[in-house]
């Protein structure tokens, strides 16, 4: 093996890879239902605030660590600071990756079932009620959700093992813009439905009385999840980034794309939710009980549905690949396993946990931990706790362990870019705003003190 690290070929390739990881079920499946569970409009405001105040500095910090360290997520920290023991940095993100992939594939499996149903035209001519019934019947059944989940695992593992990342990236470049186009068409359709304006009010008329500590925690968790922050993915990808690419514009482009897509998903879903009388707080099934109704009302809905669920599966796939890649590359490098052994064993282990997540929607529905199903518990634990914690580590590392000159050197590509205008703001955010905000929100959540009810 040579010591020279492979690098992305162009600036666009970096943006495409990071955006491929960031844009996924988090935007189209999770954002609308978390928003619905947290009362609507006010959540969007807090979410955007979290993206700007926490998400952006955090992403930039992971990029700084990765590109300067030039190693995997764990070793990059070690390279930059050999004297400190950074084991925890290596462990928390890997646990998070492990758990996220387990429950993410439950939903990814659903997208395959919906793709299949679109092909056999299984949802046409059904009323909104029947669409909901059919969804419940499917998600509460034992075998087919697990089957689809395992299919999804197989595809992900095959791609990670074969390393055909280039192929996937090539496809994402075409599929992502196509996805946006399709979503715009569906959003327009949704907006023309009877009673659509209620959906817009729900999204964009802020109701400040809805803001609670729980809403802030969920918004923060969603921001971290959607931007793929806190799992070492960005560190790993940044280590493949050339010295000539600009970190801040790359991060800016990804954040913009990710946020626009999430809000577009909201505009696509909520007018239809109110028009078809679906409960906005329907939970993880929200998108799935809403979309077939929109397709049923559209000219060419049959074709649109097939393309849409195909694209959604691919969007999920570019994310699952990035998540599995983190764990596999870590296991492979640190335990000195072969790539195939690392891929097979990691995938089997995650699949076992994944099956439990899926079962918690059917057989295991009555088993609750802290009042949540196993699935919700896994999501809550990672999005709201592990990702913010791991994210804060990176910020503290850049803010306090690295020398500011080095951080500036990395961000300005060795002094060739003028970044004076914002560097101080960034440093301030990284040293004070981001860590204090995350710690306050988490502390409030545990009930150490109460600044919000
Ligand atoms: N961001 C992806 C989405 O929105 C999911 C994802 C991929 C992720 N990689 C991640 C979430 C890393 C957290 C951390 O669907």
Note down, in words, how this protein is organized.
By secondary structure, the chain is mostly helical. Helices cover 76% and strands 0% of the residues. The chain contains 18 helices and no strands. The protein has helices at 11-22, 25-37, 41-69, 73-80, 87-119, 128-139, 143-162, 165-191, 196-204, 213-226, 233-238, 247-275, 286-297, 301-335, 339-359, 374-401, 404-411, 420-446. Helix 1 (11-22) crosses helix 14 (301-335) and helix 5 crosses helix 7 (143-162). It is globular, with a radius of gyration of 21 Å. It starts with 10 loop residues before the first helix and ends in a 7-residue tail after the last helix. The mean pLDDT is 89. It binds tryptophan. Tryptophan is lined by residues 21-22, 24-27, 100, 225-226, 228, 230-231, 233, 319, 322-323, 387. Residues 21-22, 24-27, 100, 225-226, 228, 230-231, 233, 319, 322-323, 387 line the site of tryptophan.
Q: Which distinct ligands sit in these coordinates?
A: tryptophan
> What's the alpha carbon Rg, rounded to whole Å?
21 Å
Structural class: mainly alpha
Total strands: 0
Helix content: over 70%
- Shape assignment: globular
- N- to C-terminal separation? 56 Å
* Low-pLDDT regions: none
SS strand fraction: under 5%
Largest sheet: none
Tally of helical segments: 18
Mean of residue pLDDT values: 89
Can you write the helix and strand succession as a string? Answer: HHHHHHHHHHHHHHHHHH
């Amino acid at each position: 093996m040579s010591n020279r690290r492979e690098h992305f070929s162009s600036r666009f390739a970096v943006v495409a890879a990071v955006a491929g990881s960031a844009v996924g079920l988090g935007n189209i499946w999770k954002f609308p239902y978390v928003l619905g569970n947290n009362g609507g409009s006010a959540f969007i405001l807090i979410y955007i605030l979290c993206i700007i105040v926490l998400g952006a500095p955090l992403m930039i910090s992971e990029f700084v660590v990765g590109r300067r360290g030039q190693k995997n997520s764990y070793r990059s920290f070690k390279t930059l600071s050999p004297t400190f023991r950074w084991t925890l940095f290596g462990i928390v993100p890997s646990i998070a990756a492990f758990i996220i992939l387990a429950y993410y594939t439950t939903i990814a499996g659903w997208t395959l079932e919906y793709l299949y149903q679109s092909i056999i035209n299984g949802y046409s001519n059904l009323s909104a009620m029947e669409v909901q019934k059919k969804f419940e019947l499917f998600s509460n059944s034992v075998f087919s959700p697990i089957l689809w989940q395992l299919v999804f695992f197989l595809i992900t593992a095959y791609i990670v093992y074969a390393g055909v990342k280039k192929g996937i990236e090539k496809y994402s470049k075409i599929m992502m813009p196509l996805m946006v186009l399709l979503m715009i068409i569906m959003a327009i359709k949704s907006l023309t439905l009877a009673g659509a304006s209620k959906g817009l009010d729900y999204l964009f008329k802020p109701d400040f009385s809805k803001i609670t500590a729980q809403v802030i925690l969920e918004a923060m968790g969603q921001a971290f999840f959607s931007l793929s922050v806190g799992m070492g993915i960005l560190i790993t990808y940044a280590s493949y980034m050339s010295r000539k690419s600009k970190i801040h514009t790359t991060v800016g482009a990804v954040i913009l794309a990710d946020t626009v897509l999430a809000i577009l998903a909201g505009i696509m879903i909520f007018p239809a939710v109110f028009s078809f009388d679906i409960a906005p707080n329907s939970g993880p099934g929200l998108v799935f009980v809403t979309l077939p109704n929109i397709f049923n009302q559209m000219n060419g809905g049959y074709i649109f549905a097939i393309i849409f669920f195909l694209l959604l599966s691919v969007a999920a796939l570019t994310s699952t690949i990035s998540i599995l890649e983190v764990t596999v590359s870590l296991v492979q490098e640190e335990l000195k396993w072969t790539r195939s052994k690392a891929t097979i064993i990691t995938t089997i282990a995650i699949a076992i946990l994944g099956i439990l997540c899926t079962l918690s929607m059917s057989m295991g529905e009555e088993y609750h931990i802290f009042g949540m199903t196993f699935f919700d518990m896994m999501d809550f634990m990672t999005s709201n706790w592990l990702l913010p914690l791991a994210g804060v580590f990176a910020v503290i590392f850049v803010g306090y362990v690295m020398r500011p000159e080095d951080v500036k050197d990395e961000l300005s590509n060795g002094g060739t870019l003028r970044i004076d205008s914002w560097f101080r703001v960034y440093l301030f955010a990284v040293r004070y705003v981001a860590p204090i905000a995350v710690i306050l929100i988490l502390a409030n959540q545990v009930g150490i003190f109460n600044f919000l009810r």
